[in-house]
Amino acid sequence: MGAEQSISEADAAAAAAAPPAFLHQPWREIKWGDNQSALQYVKNYKPHAEGQQVRILLHGPVGAGKSSFINSVQSVLHGRMYTLALADNTSDCSFTKKYTTYKIQKGGPDSFYPFVFNDIMGLDRNGVPVDDVRLALQGHVKDGYRFNPVSKMSNDDPYFNQCPAANDIVHVLVCVVPADTVHPIKDEMVKKIREIREEASSLGIPQMAILTKIDMTCPEIQGNLKKVYLSRHVKKKMEQFSADVGIPMNCIFPVKNYHDEIDLNSDVDSLILSALKHIITHGDDFINRKNQTDGSV
C-alpha cells in the first residue's frame, strides 16, 4: 500500500511540475472568423506580368495530406466541399504517381486562379527520386510524367521539357508533413528534404511548410481549432521540424485539411486561408525578383 501511495504521489508531483498544455497568450495572431479579407486577397490576386501564374510544388512523406490540402483550398475558394486531387486513406504507398498540375476554376469554365498546384509522389524510400524533384523545380517535368522510384527522369524522356517557360518553373516549394508523425522524423527523410531545399535555395525559390493533422496530434484542439496557437504541443512540433530541416518558424503553418466533414468550417478555413495567402505572397515576391533580375520588367 505504501509503495502504491508513493507511486501515486510521484505521478501527482510530476503532473504538477509539467507545464500547462496551453500558453496564456497565443504565440501567433490570426483573425478567427474574419475570413473575408484573406479570401478577398486570394480572389483579387493578380501577378504583375500578364499571363503569369504562381506554381506551387507540394512535396513530403506519403500520407502527409498533399492532395487533401489541394482539395481543401479548392473547397474554401468554392464555398463547398470539392475534390480536385484524388486522395487515398488506406495505402502506405504513395497514391500520387504522375506529375499533375491542378488549376482551380474561378468564375466561368475558362477562368482560373493565377496560381496552380503540383503534387508529386511521396519522398519515402520507394518514392520520388530527389533528382526528379530538382527537375520539377527547374520546370523540366511535363504534366503526365509517371515517377519511377528506382530511376530518375532522363533528358530524352518524352515528358522532359527541354526549354521551360516562365510558367513552367516552380515559384514556391511547400513541404507538407503530418503533425502526428513529424518527430522523430526519419534521417533519410530529413536528408531528402534538405537536399531538395538546397536545390530550391540555389534557384532562389522560397520554401515553406504546412503541418497537417494537427487535430490528431493534439486532442485538446480537436474540438476547438482556435487553441492551435495556444498549444505548447503544436508549437513544439513546429520547432522540432524547423530544427530538423531548417525551414524558419515564420514559414511553417499548421492546418487541418478537410477529411471527414461534409460542410465547411470557419476555423478550418481560417488556417487554410492564412497558409494560402502567405504561399501566394512568397511566390509573387519570387516572380517579381526574378523578373527584375532577368530584366523582364
**How does the overall form come out from the CA principal axes?**
globular
Q: What portion of residues belong to β-strands?
A: 5-15%
Report helical residue fraction.
25-40%
Rg calculated over all Cα atoms: 21 Å
Largest sheet: 6 strands, mixed
Supply the number of helical segments: 8
Strand order of the largest sheet: 2-3-1-4-5-6
SSE string, helix = H, strand = E?
HHEHEEHEHEHHEH
| Average pLDDT figure | 88
Specify the structural class.
alpha/beta
Q: Give the terminus-to-terminus CA distance.
A: 80 Å
Number of strands: 6
Low-confidence stretches: 88-95
Your description of this structure?
The chain has a 6-stranded mixed beta sheet with strand order 2-3-1-4-5-6, sandwiched between helices. Helix 3 packs across helix 8 (266-294). It has helices at 2-17, 35-44, 66-78, 130-137, 187-202, 214-217, 232-245, 266-294, and strands at residues 54-59, 100-105, 112-119, 172-178, 207-212, 252-254. A hairpin with a 6-residue loop joins strand 2 and strand 3. The chain has 297 residues and is α/β, with parallel strands linked by helices. Helices cover 37% and strands 12% of the residues.
Task: Tell me briefly what this model is.
37% of the residues lie in helices and 12% in strands. With 297 residues, the protein is an alpha/beta fold.
Q: Descriptors for this entry?
A:
alpha/beta; globular; six-stranded mixed beta sheet; 297 residues; 8 helices
Layout of strands and helices, then pairs:
Elements: H1 2-17, H2 35-44, E1 54-59, H3 66-78, E2 100-105, E3 112-119, H4 130-137, E4 172-178, H5 187-202, E5 207-212, H6 214-217, H7 232-245, E6 252-254, H8 266-294
